[in-house]
Write a structure and sequence with these properties.
Largest sheet of chain B: 8 strands, mixed
Strand content of chain B: 15-25%
Distance between the termini of chain B: 18 Å
Structural class of chain B: alpha/beta
CATH architecture of one domain in chain A: Orthogonal Bundle
Number of strands of chain B: 12
Helix content of chain B: 25-40%
Pfam family, one (chain B): oligo_HPY
Mean pLDDT of chain A: 84
Structural class of chain A: mainly alpha
Number of strands of chain A: 0
Largest interface: A-B, 23 and 30 residues
Number of helices of chain B: 11
Subcellular location (chain B): Cell membrane
Low-confidence stretches of chain A: none
Number of helices of chain A: 12
Low-confidence stretches of chain B: none
Oligomer: heterodimer
Helix content of chain A: over 70%
GO biological process, one term (chain B): peptide transport
Membrane topology (chain B): Peripheral membrane protein
Shape of chain A: flat
Largest sheet of chain A: none
Distance between the termini of chain A: 16 Å
Radius of gyration of chain A: 24 Å
Keywords (chain B): ATP-binding, Cell membrane, Membrane, Nucleotide-binding, Transport
CATH class of one domain in chain A: Mainly Alpha
Strand content of chain A: under 5%
Mean pLDDT of chain B: 89
Chain lengths: 314, 361
């Protein structure tokens, strides 16, 4: 990796940090603007309410609260849960769940990208044959059917009709329990990636540099793997970002169908109960995952495409 | 002409393409000869079949194209001095790929901006064919690639090896394409409009480069072009193509100074010229025939002001021009029974001027 590449990555990380800070500020302001407080018990008198608020520092001006929050966050302290898990540290509640959601998301993206690319490449190479048609049908189904429908289908078929997989999340068998939700989540990724890969591959195969490579006297395998694939994959990588956003909204529903102890369920619960710190931590983690993904995608884009890496002026 | 060594002999080549609902007879019986160290140009307008002919030689016809008849005999001499001739039409795809393409016949393409792989360094792209075909080691291939790059006039070749195509100008990229073509020491170089996409000042330099390399390496070269200016500069022999047939062939002097086919007259008249008296640039009226239908008579007849009755009914054979062994014309005007027809006066004046100035070499 050369110097310009490192500089590029550094610049991207800096921008990511700034973006995260902006997101965090908006989030903080928004949660404080939500109607109600975490302490909605009718039994509490206004005086008692003030005491509880003071206990958690919620009586101070918002800007001071934000300052304190940031200070603690840098130390890895995301505050305490007010309602759901009374007075437990948020980090301890959210982190194990985030890990599960994150692993599911990555697994589904990885599985979907690999299968989707293969499908797209086959469709492009065997254009206008039965293979192409099959790939197109899979793509259309994958794009148009939401992931939770797939999850339900898989649960019914593999969990109930021929019970080979658990229908619910099993604490002691996390890998087997993950098969249904991950496969369900990956369907839309497969569909999107296959469609883009096919289109890109077809246009690359028709390009002038492929004719030149052909005129060099290379065999088919070399042509496809050394010359075509890399060029076809560059645009595909860019669509993985948006696909991932879709996937994240999908995880919440799929997680609740398969009873996965992930971020989705707790985020919804915390919004209902105004559990500020849990809302903050969950949303921040979603934002962080998204931005981290975008960063990885941008960097890998640069690694694959020299025109992006070297930028202007070189 | 004592020992002219034949490299390529095409006889009666016919190629058709299947398209939706129709069969396009793109090439209709082409004969072509090319000798060692010589240059031929194939001239014609778009769709006349010049590119298809050369693609057939390379075995890179589009998937819907088939060779209906004919032979493409390619002759080469091995380092041990033994001579071999093979009919490319009869070779399998695998044989053409591993023996001919890139190795014995190489090609330079029209648009250097799009013909290099954008994600591969220049060095890798130049080194690839020799490593692939000859199993050259990486170090040796690197050395040879640097040599090649400096040979095609690229300054600071070592630094360029690490560059990507987008970091080079169009002219530089075309030099790289030429270096790639020469990397496996081919016998025959096909240049498909090699200067069309380049600006005029670079054009001349690229043509000179190809000529220099040709002399140095004793290459045979086929130029495909519609630019008669290019033809005049580089070619020994010219083949004028129209609607999938060669309608006039001869040495460069014969075609430029003594054209016989009305289509060639049209092409020469349509050449832009600075000191012409006419206000308007001449164009040949009409457009080429639809090759999905069977051509009746001479394909050029409907656009030909000099067409005879027979042109509409019978296809003219190749007539030898009296007094020349190389000049041949497919036009009924060459038949002894045909009325005597002169080329247009404006063209005659122009040719006279060209002879005085010595436009052709």
């Amino acid at each position: 990796m050369d110097k310009s590449m490192l500089k590029y990555i550094g610049k991207r990380i800096l921008i990511s940090i700034v973006t995260l800070f902006v997101i965090l500020s908006i989030l903080f302001l928004m949660t404080r603007l939500l109607p109600g407080t975490p302490f909605n018990s009718e039994k509490m008198s206004p005086e008692q309410m003030e005491v509880v608020k003071a206990k958690y520092g919620l009586d101070k001006p918002v800007i001071v609260q934000f300052g304190n929050y940031l200070k603690n966050m840098v130390k890895g302290d995301f505050g305490l849960s007010y309602v759901l898990y009374k007075d437990q540290g948020v980090a301890d509640i959210v982190m194990p769940r985030a890990k599960i959601s994150f692993i599911y998301g990555i697994a589904a993206t990885a599985l979907g990208t690999i299968v989707g690319m293969l499908l797209g490449i086959i469709a492009a190479l065997k254009r206008n044959t039965i293979w192409d048609t099959i790939a197109t049908i899979i793509s259309v189904l994958g794009v148009s059917i939401p992931s939770f429908v797939f999850a339900l289908l898989l649960v019914i078929i593999l969990g109930v009709k021929l019970p080979v997989l658990p229908t619910m999340y099993l604490e002691n068998d996390p890998i087997v329990s993950s098969i249904i939700p991950v496969v369900a989540l990956s369907m839309s990724v497969i569909a999107n990636v296959a469609r883009f890969t096919r289109t890109e591959m077809i246009s690359v195969l028709a390009s002038d540099y492929m004719t030149l490579a052909l005129a060099k006297g290379l065999d088919k395998k070399t042509l496809i793997f050394r010359h075509a694939l890399r060029n076809a994959l560059i645009p595909v990588i860019t669509v993985i970002g948006p696909i991932l956003v879709n996937l994240m909204t999908g995880t919440m529903v799929v997680e609740s169908i398969c009873n996965v102890p992930g971020l989705g369920q707790i985020l919804i619960d915390s919004i209902h109960s105004n559990d500020y710190n849990i809302i903050m931590a969950c949303s921040f983690l979603y934002a962080f995952m998204y931005i981290a993904m975008m960063l990885i995608i941008d960097v890998s884009y640069g690694l694959i495409d020299p025109r992006i890496r070297l930028g202007k002026g070189e | 002409m004592a020992e002219r060594e034949k490299v390529l002999e095409i006889r009666d080549l016919s190629i058709s393409f299947r398209t939706e609902g129709a069969k396009v007879n793109a090439i209709r019986g082409v004969d072509l000869d090319l000798y060692r160290g010589e240059t031929i140009a194939i001239v014609g307008e778009s769709g006349s079949g010049k590119s298809v002919t050369t693609k057939a030689i390379m075995g890179i016809l589009a998937k819907n194209g088939t060779i209906d008849s004919g032979t493409i005999n390619y002759t080469w001499t091995d380092p041990d001095g033994s001579k071999h001739t093979k009919d490319i039409v009869k070779m399998s795809e695998k044989e053409i790929q591993s023996e001919i393409r890139g190795r014995k016949i190489a090609m330079v393409f029209q648009d250097p901006l799009t013909s290099l792989n954008p994600t591969m360094t220049i060095g890798k792209q130049v080194m690839e064919p020799m490593m692939y075909h000859y199993g050259t080691s990486k170090e040796e291939a690197y050395k040879k690639a640097v040599e090649l790059l400096s040979e095609v006039g690229i300054t600071d070749p070592e630094a360029r090896m690490k560059n990507y195509p987008h970091q080079l100008s169009g002219g530089m990229r075309q030099r790289v394409v030429i270096a790639i073509a020469l990397s496996c020491d081919p016998y025959l170089l096909i240049c498909d409009e090699p200067t069309t996409a380049l600006d005029v000042t670079i054009q001349a330099k690229i043509l000179e480069l190809i000529q220099d390399l040709q002399k140095k390496k004793d290459l045979s070269v086929i130029y495909i072009t519609h630019d008669l200016g290019v033809v005049a500069k580089v070619a020994d022999y010219v083949n004028v193509m129209y609607a999938g047939k060669i309608i006039e062939k001869g040495t460069i002097d014969e075609i430029f100074y003594d054209p016989r086919h009305p289509y060639t007259w049209g092409l020469l008249s349509a050449m832009p010229d600075l000191d012409t008296d006419d206000d308007e640039l001449y164009t040949i009226p009409g457009s080429p025939p639809n090759l999905t239908k069977k051509v009746q008579g001479d394909a050029f007849a409907p656009r030909n002001a000099y067409a005879l009755n027979i042109d509409l009914r019978l296809e003219p054979p190749m007539f030898d021009v009296p007094g020349s062994s190389s000049h041949k014309v497919a036009s009924w005007l060459m038949d002894p029974r045909a009325p005597k027809v002169e080329m247009p006066a404006s063209l005659r004046n122009r040719i006279q001027k060209m002879i005085k100035e010595g436009v052709a070499k």
